Amino acid sequence: MSQLPRVVILATGGTIAGASANPASSARYQAATVPVTTLLAAVPALQSVARVEAEQVAQVDSKDMVFSLWSTLAARVQYWSVQPDVAGIVITHGTDTLEETAMFLQLTQACPVPVVLTAAMRPSTSLSADGPLNLLDAVRVAAHPDACGKGVLVVLNQQIHAARDVVKAHTSAVDAFVSVPCGPLGFVQDELVRIARAPVRSGMAPLPVPQHWPDVEIIASYAQPGRIVVDALVGAGVRGLVIAAAGNGSVHETLVAALRDAVAAGVAVVRSSRTGAGHVAIPPVVDPVCGTFVSAADLNPYKARVLLLLALAQDPGLASDPERLQGLFASS
Fold first, then answer.
1. Where do the CATH 3.40.50.1170 domains begin and end in the chain?
2. Which residues form the L-asparaginase N-terminal domain (predicted)?
3. 51 in Cβ contact with 4 (< 8 Å)
4. Which architecture does CATH list for 6-195?
5. Separation CA 321–CA 273 (nearest Å)
6. Tens digit of pLDDT for each residue in 274-296?
7. Could you tell me which residues are beta bridge partners of residue 179?
8. If we measure between CA atoms, which residue out of 194, 171, 213, 241 comes closest to residue 26?
9. What pTM did the predictor assign?
10. Between 20 and 30 A from 3 (CA), which of 142, 185, 253, 264?
C-alpha cells in the first residue's frame, strides 16, 4: 500500500475552533478557543486520507484579523510549501475575513502545492457543527493532485471555490460562501473530489508581503453623503481609498469633489461596487467625473483593498499613476 500524502494544517482560530456552553446555540459562542489538536481528534477519518501535521499559528476571531498575522501566515505557507514531502496545506480560519485572507495569499504566494482555506459557520460544540466535514473535505482537496496549479482554494459546505471569487454572502447559513459570477470550481462528496474547471489565472507575478503596510481605507457612496470622512482620512495621511460605490461604480457628486481633491493630494482612489456582483466599467482617462478613479474590475471593496494595499506597498508611485494602477487591477 502506498504511503498517504502529507498535509500540513495551519490553524488560526475562528468559529471552527469556537465553543459554546449551549450546544443548541449556533449564534452565541466564543470563537477561537479550541486547539487544533482537539479539532483533529474529532475527525478520525483524516487518518485514512493523509498524514496530517498541525501547527497552531494563531488563535483569533477573524473579525480581529491584522496584517502582522497575514505576514506570519504567509511565512508559514512559504516554509511548508517547499518541503519536499508536503503534498498540500490547509488553513483553518474564521469566516468573517476569510475572503480577504484568501485574496492576500492568492496575490502573494506562488503555491507550488495546493493551499486550501476552510472554516465553519457553527462552533465545534454545536449540535450540527459543520467544521469537522469542512476540515475533512479541505484535507481531501489539499491532498488531491487535481488541486495543484489552481491557486489558493477555499473549501466549505462540500464546494471548492477560487480565492479570488469567493465571498461570504449570508450571516449564518452553512452555505454562506458563494462565488460570483461563475460559481464554484468543483465539489467534494465523500472520497470524490471533482474540480470541473480551473480558475482564470492572470499570470501576474506574486506581490511581495509588505514590510510596511500603507494606510488604505474603504468608504461608501450613498444618498447625500458628506465629505468629512474623505477629508479626515486624507488629512490623516491615508495613501489609498476604495469606494464602495453604487451600481456600476457611481459616486455621489459630493464625494466626487472630495475624491478629486484626494487624488490631487497624491491618494490612490479605486471604485468598486457595493452591489456584490458585476464589473465596474473603466471610464476613458478624459472622463470628467471618474477619469482619475481606478476601476476595481469585478473585485468587491474588501478584495480591492487587499490588492491596493499590496500594490502601494510595493510601489508608492502608483498612487499618482492611475493608468499603471488600472493595468494592475485589470490583470489581477
1. 6-195
2. 6-199
3. yes
4. 3-Layer(aba) Sandwich (3.40)
5. 22
6. 999 999 988 654 455 565 799 99
7. 166
8. 171
9. 0.95
10. 185
Q: Which residues are catalytic?
A: 15, 95
How confident is the model over 291-321, as pLDDT tens digits? Answer: 579 999 999 999 999 999 999 999 999 999 9
Comparing 18-22, 56-60, 147-151, 231-235, which segment has the lowest mean pLDDT? 18-22
The C-alpha atoms of residue 249 and residue 332 are separated, in whole angstroms, by 18
**Cell digits of residue 177:** 460562501
> What is the per-residue burial (b if ≥16 Cβ within 10 Å, else e) of 144-174?
beebeebbbbbbbbbbbbbbbbbbbeeeeeb
CB 322 within 8 A of CB 292: yes
CATH 3.40.50.40 residue ranges of the chain are: 216-331
Which pLDDT band, with edges at 50, 70 and 90, does 200 fall under? confident
For 216-331, CATH gives: 3.40.50.40
Report the half-sphere exposure of 136 (CA within 13 A, side-chain side): 20
Q: Which set of grid coordinates corresponds to residue 57?
A: 499559528
DSSP structure string for 111-175: -SS-EEEE--SS-TTSTT--HHHHHHHHHHHHT-GGGTTS-EEEEETTEEEETTTEEE--SS-TT
Residue type, 15: T
